[in-house]
Amino acid sequence: MKRILAGMMAGLLLALAACGGSGEAAPQTEESDTADFPALVEVETPTPSPEPSSEPVPTPASSPEVRRIEPPDSELVCVTDWIPALIVELRYASPDNFTGQTIYDFSDAWLRYGTVKKLRKAQDALAAEGCGLKIWDAYRPAEAQFRLWEAVPDGRYVANPYTGHSSHANGGTVDLTLVRPDGSPVEMPTGFDDFSPLADRDYSDVSETAGRHARLLERTMEEAGFVPYAGEWWHFSDAEPYPYEDLERLPFPLNRQTVFEPDCEETLSLLAAPEAGAEVLALIARGTSFSVLGWAGDYARIQVQDRQGYVAISGIRLKAP
C-alpha cells in the first residue's frame, strides 16, 4: 500500500510540473508599439486567398519577409528602394548649392517608378564600366522652385516658376554624375550647377578625361531612355513625360523613414491597387505604425508587417513621436 501511495504522489507531482503547477505565472511578452522597417526583398507573388482578410493587422515586434508589390510606372518612389547601390547626395537638402540655402527638407531621392527602371538599366551598364551614379537632384517640389527663384531670380540659371514649372516637378528628371564603386568622384567637366559655358555638352573646352567621362554618362543615359539637356551635362529627363498636376501637392514629408499611422476610428483598408473598389487585402488597426514606400495620386503605397498595399492618403497621418 505504501508503494502504491508513493507512486500516486510521484505521478501527481509530474502532472503539476507539466502544467506549470509550481504556482509561478508564465512570463508574458509585451508587444512593441512600433514596427521595424526591414530592407525590401524580392519574393514570389503569393497565391491570393479567395476572401480578403478581415483581421486587423497588429503592430509586430519584428517584421517577417516582405511581400513586394510592383508599382505602376507613374508612382513616385524612393530611388534607393529599387537601386540600393546608387548613391544619393541631394544638394538642395543642404546649403551646399549655388544659393547657399537649404531648399527642401528631405534627403531621399524620389522619381517615378518608370524612370527608376530606366535609371537601374543605366546603373547596371555603368557597373560593367567600373563606375556608378550619384544623384544630386531628382523630384523637386513646386514650392522649391520658388525658393530657388527667390535666391537667384535670373532666368539664365533658374527656371522662372511664375511662367512655368521645372521639369523636376514632374518626377521624371534627374541631375547626376559618375562615381567610382567606392563613391569617390571621377573627373567631370564641372561641378554641379556651374553656370559657365564649360557645363554644356560641347566637351572640346574641357580636359580629355572629363570629356570622355561626360560622353560615357550621356551615352549610357540615352541608351537607357533619357533625353539630355544641352546646357547641363548632369541633367537628364525621361523620354516618357509624366503629368505635373498629380504631384503638385504631396501632403506629407518625403523622408523615407517618416512613420505613419491610420487616421481613423477603428481600421484602415489595405488595398491591392491605388484605386477605389480595389481588393481589400487586410484591415489595419488604429495605432499601427507603417512606412510609406510610394505616392500614387490619392493613394500611398505602404509597408506594414510583411505586407505591402495601398491606402487612401486621406486616411493616414504622421505618427506622433
Which secondary structure elements does this structure contain, and how are they paired or packed?
Layout lengths: L1 H17 L37 E2 L18 E3 H4 L4 E2 L21 E3 H15 L4 E6 L4 H10 L21 E7 L28 H17 L1 E3 L6 E4 L20 E4 L4 E5 L8 E6 L4 E7 L2 E6 L2 E6 L3 E3 L3
Parallel strand pairs: 1-11, 3-5
Antiparallel strand pairs: 2-4, 2-12, 5-6, 6-8, 7-8, 9-12, 9-15, 10-11, 12-13, 13-14
Explained architecture:
With 321 residues, the protein is α+β, with helices and mostly antiparallel strands. The protein has 2 domains: 82 residues, SH3 Domains (SH3 type barrels, Roll); 166 residues, Muramoyl-pentapeptide Carboxypeptidase, domain 2, CATH 3.30.1380.10. The protein is 20% helix and 21% strand. The strands form 3 sheets. Strands 2, 4, 9, 12, 13, 14 and 15 form a 7-stranded antiparallel β-sheet that branches. A 5-stranded mixed β-sheet has the order 3-5-6-8-7, covered by helices on one side. The protein has a 3-stranded mixed β-sheet with strand order 1-11-10, with no helix packed on it. Helix 3 packs across helix 5. The N terminus is likely disordered.
